[in-house]
Amino acid sequence: MNKKKSKVLAFLLAASLLVPSVNGIVSAAELDNVKSANKVVVSQETTNPDGSDTSTQDSVTQNVAKIGDKEYATLTEAINNADDGATIELLGDVTEDITVNKNVTIDGKKDDKTNYVIIGNTKLENGTLKNATLKPKDDDKTGSVLQIGSTAENTINMYGVAVEYSVVNRSGGSNVVGGNNSNITIGNCLFTNNPNNGDTKIGVLEWSFGLSMGSQDTKGSFDFINNEFNGAFRTMLPSINGKVTIQGNKFNNSVLTVSPGTGNGANAQATCITTLAKLDSNDFTITDNTFNNPGAFYFQDIANVQNNTFVFDNSGHYIQLGGKVGRNLDLRNNTFKTESDGVVSIDTEGAQVILPAGQTAINYWAWNDTPVDIRPDGYSSYKYIYNSDGNKIFYPESEAALKAFTNPASGNIGAGDKDRIVVSNDMTIGDKTTLDIPKDKKITIEVPAGKTLTLDSEDAMNITGTLNLVGDGKVVINKGAELNVGDTGKLNVEIPVENNGTMDNAGEIIIDTNNGGITGNNPTGSGKVEYEYTPSYPSYPSKPTYTHEEIIGSDRYETAARIADKLGSYDNVVLVNAESSMSDGLAASGLAGKENGAILLTKKDSIPQATMDRIKKVKKVYIIGGEAAISAKVANEITAVGIKVERLGGKTRVETSEIVAKKLGNYSDAFVVNGFKGESDAMSASAIAAKKGAPILLTNGKTSTHAKKSGVEYYVIGGDNVVDKSIADKYNAKVLAGKDRYATNKEVINEFYSGSDKVYIANGDKLVDVLTASPLAKKDGIVLVNEKSDKSILKGKNTVQVGGMDFKIEFEK
């Protein structure tokens, strides 16, 4: 095992991955300069707030704030006179430095479209600030706009606030104060600036630092939920530490490097999220975010990074894992969209950045440790990917990269026993790129069709371990060149080898004559040479195998939450009361499908924790049903955490379905069901309604007041005993019906999902799981089952079970 090492990122083509100087907004809480192979650990970003508390007020012609009916000329005066728990409403824009050091709420809402502006340095040490825009004073040379946090154990919230940074005066900016012991929540806020850089992305002159963190104390926490960064940022969220949740945000950066860069740290390179060194109090959760060319990531401690989308389409972007971490950073459960060469991975053998299978990575340290006399100018030829089984395929595009992956420098990632090196170009191995296969090591090198690997030096290749030479290309040993197999070495030849030089064998050479062979000079030396013939046989289809997955929580609320997690990224939540009739909830599936939403469950007067945890990820919640189904108390609990709520509910369940249908706008299909008797059959339509963004229209089974829309294809779910034939005639609808709910469900599956090789299954006697699974199952359909139902429809299908079963399912595979 190679020893761990920590390295400095000397430069990354145009710029280095480092942090700003201690004299700037982001300081140098520098790490130990741990030497390893002449490298030191990169210093890290923190904030150094100035601690000033000046308060100024421009002359005004009106009062700017009020508490109840009493108005105040300055916001500071209002804060000083506010009682604990009071709400201060802004009456106009404010120009003053303020300190909020008590439990009050400041609401800057002007009207439904605009908020009032606070111009100056806002220190938020307690309470709540919402619906406001923060800007620095033009004459503030530091550009200080926001300092948030406190060494006291307070609760601090910021909702719906826009923070506008200076792109010239930036040494103050915004930060979380050092020693924070408060619980900070920032939700639905916008962090932005207005640079004048044109289309330039490299070395831009106008830019800002983002929201950097001082060292949190053990009782502090930082929740950053559903916010957005948008502009030209040198940093976004640097130096996170302690208990931090970053969830549901959008990080959009318009720059790659800035000018002037900072004196230490990442210098000119834009960074998105960086962490302080490994601490016992660290607890990082980074989920459901979108990173759009955000800059580099630097982790000095492991984080839970799940369900994020990384869009890197204008340059190779960097993800660095500090060598002292000592554990892998697993990013497999994330989506990467890269149009450049790939993700530049700055990691070590002992602390690897594991990317999703098939995602191209470029190994920075392999390039950095290549001797200067053979090192390419750029590192784009040092490519590799992870397989789904966790092993790697290396795709070197230069001799230097082949050397680096075969014989990695101490601590670097290289090919292991189960990995493969695929030679991507014609390559020549000379005396400067000699390949050594060490004892107790197994290396596989593949030369694809049309490619040639040439040995062209007296000491081109030395084998004391095991080397497999495979592929449809060829290996050429030039005159005067030599391949040496030591007495402990083994060479398996499964590729044509043209030997014009010397193959000196003191160990063992095994030649597969079916796939390869040696022409020209025969191997020499005292070792064994064996020939093997591997006959080829006609292939016969093997018995297919099918998968079965289960999504089951401890109750219906957690099951719905786990189903939502499987959706990955979703923008909205459709909330349904799980304690009442599912008829109201039937209308939810089409809305969830159209609005990229998850269906979650609540009680009438309280929200289960599993549901609330997911609600905090989104920007909007649709409540299905009137207050008799879901009370105002639940709606207020959601808005209290900064999430918008829209209620879609009528006086009756039929009216609710009409309201939801109107919300859907234009649609090409609609499903008509009995909302009082046939809802069990109707659940069969939930998945296809989600897929099509179609309404499920409730009737009383005898008549329907819903007006027929032209251009819409209607389906009636259930037979005449459930939905009268006159209703089907009114809509010229196709009827999908069977003798019971299971037969009806089979008709729906055959109509819409006949070609799917996968289905979701749910308990036909407990229909709530069918509803919550509909957005997840919209591409494949949901089959209802119970102990005695006909399960032949599952034959030959991969299955995903949602919710628990009180019986065993026998699959006909």
| Tally of DSSP helical segments | 14
Distance between the termini: 45 Å
Return residue spans where pLDDT drops below 50 for at least 5 consecutive residues. Answer: 1-60
Helix content: 10-25%
The number of E-state strands comes to: 65
Question: Mind describing the biggest β-sheet?
Answer: 14 strands, mixed
Please, how many domains?
3
Assign an overall shape. flat
What's the average pLDDT?
A: 88
Q: How are strands sequenced across the largest beta sheet? A: 22-25-28-31-34-36-37-38-39-42-45-48-51-53
Q: Structural class, from helix and strand content?
A: alpha/beta
Strand content: 25-35%
The radius of gyration is 32 Å
What does this entry look like structurally?
- This protein has 813 residues and is an alpha/beta fold.
- The chain folds into three domains: 1-42 and 189-425, no CATH class; 426-536, no CATH class; 548-802, no CATH class.
- Helix content is 13%, strand content 32%.
- The chain has 14 helices and 65 strands.
- The strands form eleven sheets. Strands 22-25-28-31-34-36-37-38-39-42-45-48-51-53 form a 14-stranded mixed beta sheet. Strands 4-3-5-8-11-14-17-20-23-26-29 form an eleven-stranded mixed beta sheet.
- β3 (65-67) and β4 form a beta hairpin.
- α6 (588-594) packs parallel to α9 and α6 packs parallel to α11 (686-692).
- The relative contact order is 0.06.
- Mean pLDDT is 88; it is low at 1-60.
